[in-house]
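pls ignore typos typing on phone
nicotinamide-adenine-dinucleotide + seq
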Amino acid sequence: MSESRKLRMGMVGGGPGAFIGPVHKMAAELDGQIEMVAGAFSQSAERSRAAGEHFKIDPHRAYAGYAEMLKAERERPDAIDFVVIATPNHLHLPVAAAALDAGFAVMSDKPATATYDEVLELEAVVKNAGLPYGLTHTYAGYSLVREARALCASGALGATRKVAVEYLQGWLSSPLEATGQKQAAWRSDPALNGPGGCIGDIGTHAFHLVEYVTGARVTSLNAALRTVVPGRRLDDDCNALLRMENGATGTLMASQVAAGEGNGLRLRVYGEKGSIEWHQEDPNRLRVKWEGGPEEVRYAAGGYLSAGARAVTRLPGGHPEGYIEAFAVLYREFAEGLTALKAGKKDSMPETLPGIVAGVRGMRFIERAIESSRTEKWVEF
Ligand code: NAD
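k done
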């Protein structure tokens, strides 16, 4: 690939009224390494065309379906380099598998698939294809999450003893799906979403954040999932106890009926000597508390931050970066990895970018949490 051109992406999902598809486009294009040139944006050909017009792409490349997109793009000299998946969960496996089989790298939104069985299938496809597969666990892209991760890895906090993660939203406090609201409708339909409601939609982000920051894996859990809103078909509120491989324990709370909450993802990690606290609604501050010492507040873009945190910072201190920039960090890493691969480098994807391993862990987490809740017992991972 010529180093002077941008990588070309084709999106599946992200049609009119969609939430995350347009965020993918903004984030992918933020650093000038990627451009969206094609898409199958909706299950309706007409709506896909309308989205293509909105995004100002060549009308011939706003396809009626993803199979058509893959077939047509393969034959173009200026074909896409990778496919982005921003559809409801039940399409993640078929789209990712078809794209990889057609020779395209994949950047998928989470959860990796709708079910645990599906993710095992996807894992095999990714391995066989030998192509990059990235998973947009957005919060891994924040510079202060990278700082928290570096602090845990440095040993400065001492061994991790306790983790408390919560992800609280309020938007499903009423039966929104019954009104036809698009995002609520598919999320509460097991056929389109998979068997884990809140635990899959946001519990997986919280779970990923715990393992990503501490570098330690969850080994067993005891979860209680419930459905608060009458008539809802999937869980909307979850509490879980965690045991981790380093002897640490933790709590994970996820809810979409926490009335009044927006996107309240908060992580606390307690080591032997000190602790850290990060809140995604105040993402440019990381609190570090030392036992017997003063509390520190580390600000994004501080020159004193770890190299990993500074590497994903674009603006000087006091100029807040947020959700789109964090998303864009994952795209920048994906683009760098894919470009290096095209230049012949093996294992080119940076280890900071979540991929199929995180995808399998996330789906296992959902499956285990449901099993634990059903049997009212601790379950091994
Ligand atoms: P949404 O309902 O807003 O958008 C889904 C889009 O997919 C719609 O435009 C729909 O028309 C399209 N679609 C459905 N079937 C299709 C098909 N066969 N071909 C092409 N397009 C099709 O949903 P959303 O809230 O944007 O969620 C989409 C995905 O992103 C989900 O998997 C969700 O879990 C994930 N998500 C991730 C984050 C994050 O922080 N990383 C945030 C929100 C959503």
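The first strand starts at residue 7 and ends at 13. Residues 12-15, 18-21, 40-43, 66, 86-89, 91, 109-110, 136, 138, 182-183, 186, 201 surround nicotinamide-adenine-dinucleotide (CB under 6 Å). more later
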